[in-house]
Amino acid sequence: MSAARETLGDSGAGKSSLIRQLLMQIENRRQTAVVYDPAREYLLQFYNEERGDVVLNPLDARMPYWNPAEEVLNPLEAEAVAKSLFPDRAGANGNIASSSAIGTVGRMKETVHA
Ligand SMILES: Nc1ncnc2c1ncn2[C@@H]1O[C@H](COP(=O)(O)OP(=O)(O)O)[C@@H](O)[C@H]1O
Ligand SMILES: [Mg+2]
What we know:
The protein has about 110 residues and is mainly α. The chain has helices spanning about 15-30, 45, 75-85, 95-105, 110.
């Protein structure tokens, strides 16, 4: 499927069944799918460990270990990661909380590569 697609419909209209059909076709063709499945309605049917499927859910023991600090290869990247986690936004406490959070996470580089 190369085109963008949107599936709209009332509850019970058949959206989940349609998506399940698509996933079965993708599986039969041995193609790859990235499935956003917060209700875990497809996980049981489609997850296949032997195939190398990966579950990205910190509450699922099958999720591989990942530490955002490992993405950081130099100090500039540490700051970019920190800013993406704590966007600069004026709130009730001004920017003090976010700038101190950015500073703390920005130190990841030193912690990881010490
Ligand atoms: N094409 C279809 N023909 C007949 N029944 C269908 C069809 N698609 C879905 N259904 C049935 O309708 C019900 C709701 O479908 P579902 O996919 O869960 O809807 P949605 O996700 O839109 O809420 C299910 O019982 C399903 O089996
Ligand atoms: Mg549904």
